TrEMBL record:
Any one GO molecular-function label of the UniProt entry: cellulase activity
PANTHER family: ENDOGLUCANASE II, PUTATIVE (AFU_ORTHOLOGUE AFUA_1G12560)-RELATED
Function of the molecule: Lytic polysaccharide monooxygenase (LMPO) that depolymerizes crystalline and amorphous polysaccharides via the oxidation of scissile alpha- or beta-(1-4)-glycosidic bonds, yielding C1 and/or C4 oxidation products. Catalysis by LPMOs requires the reduction of the active-site copper from Cu(II) to Cu(I) by a reducing agent and H(2)O(2) or O(2) as a cosubstrate.
Keyword Electron transport listed: no
EC number(s) per entry: 1.14.99.56
Any GO CC annotation of this UniProt entry: extracellular region
Comment, domains: Has a modular structure: an endo-beta-1,4-glucanase catalytic module at the N-terminus, a linker rich in serines and threonines, and a C-terminal carbohydrate-binding module (CBM).
Protein family according to the UniProt entry: Belongs to the polysaccharide monooxygenase AA9 family.
Catalysed reactions listed for this entry: [(1->4)-beta-D-glucosyl]n+m + reduced acceptor + O2 = 4-dehydro-beta-D-glucosyl-[(1->4)-beta-D-glucosyl]n-1 + [(1->4)-beta-D-glucosyl]m + acceptor + H2O
Protein name per UniProt: AA9 family lytic polysaccharide monooxygenase
Cofactor: Cu(2+)
Taxonomic path: Eukaryota, Fungi, Dikarya, Ascomycota, Pezizomycotina
Short name of one Pfam family: AA9
Length: 236
């Protein structure tokens, strides 16, 4: 019995680690840039405080010098997986009932290899659809962890960080229970556009009590009109 219990303990802790995930890879208009311009987090553990610096680009990242080329009006793709370096489509991108929205932000910066934006605008989001009963994270899992987003055509050229985020809400019915998984990618946008859209600050954009962050997702009535946290999407 004792060995059964300890084996169960190992199984349970292994499962909860497997459920954690990281946005790891980046594609520019269909070209696989792998993790070359990703500020990879040191672990796949979530950030749970919306008010610390960790909410910007995760809790400690590996420095990287590459800046991926991006063209305004074309698509970029962010790719999430559970384990570092594992791009297998047979493993869920984010499992363990880690349901929630998937959001992509960009922020302008002088040098994407060293700087961190003070202002972020949202270019894409998927919350919950009562019709399909799918969360953004379900769609990620349906697409082997990939989500493609159009970089607005009117965006001004220059260095930016792309901030890809999944928020797991399986334990979000108490404050501090939501789990934030984000990675920042270093990019340079080529563009004939001129727009510098208004943005929000991290920390600051989210509150622990936002309706999309403090929520019981097991109650159909509370997710029927799910409100994704942060500002409105800017599409250019
Ligand atoms: C490009 O991104 C948009 C979302 O901004 C998406 O609807 C579209 O399917 C993407 N196109 C491709 C080819 O992935
Ligand atoms: Cu988790």
């Amino acid at each position: 019995m004792k060995s059964f219990v300890s084996a169960l303990g190992v199984l349970v802790s292994a499962t909860s680690v497997v459920a954690h995930s990281t946005f790891q890879e980046f594609w520019s208009n269909g070209v696989d840039e792998a993790s070359s311009c990703a500020r990879l987090p040191l672990s796949n553990s979530p950030v749970t405080s919306v008010s610390t610096a960790d909410i910007v680009c995760n809790a400690g990242t590996k420095p990287v010098t590459t800046i991926c080329p991006v063209t305004a009006g074309q698509n970029i793709t962010v790719e999430m997986h559970a384990q570092p370096g594992d791009r297998s489509c047979t493993n869920l991108a984010i499992g363990g009932n880690h349901y929630g929205p998937v959001i992509v932000y960009m922020g302008k910066v002088d040098n994407a290899a060293s700087g961190t934006p003070t202002s972020w605008f949202k270019i894409d989001q998927e919350g919950y659809s009562p019709t399909t009963k799918k969360w953004g994270t379900d769609t990620l899992n349906d697409n082997c962890g990939k989500r493609s987003v159009k970089v607005p055509a009117t965006l001004a050229p220059g260095n930016y960080l792309v901030r890809a985020e999944a928020i797991a809400l399986h334990a979000a019915s108490s404050a501090g229970g939501a789990q934030f998984y984000m990675t920042c990618f270093q990019v340079n946008v080529a563009s004939i556009g001129t727009v510098n859209p208004p943005g929000v600050a991290f920390p600051g954009a989210y509150k622990a009590t936002d309706p999309g962050i403090l929520i019981n997702i097991y109650q159909a009535s509370s997710i029927a009109n799910y409100v994704v946290p942060g500002p409105a999407v800017w599409t250019g």
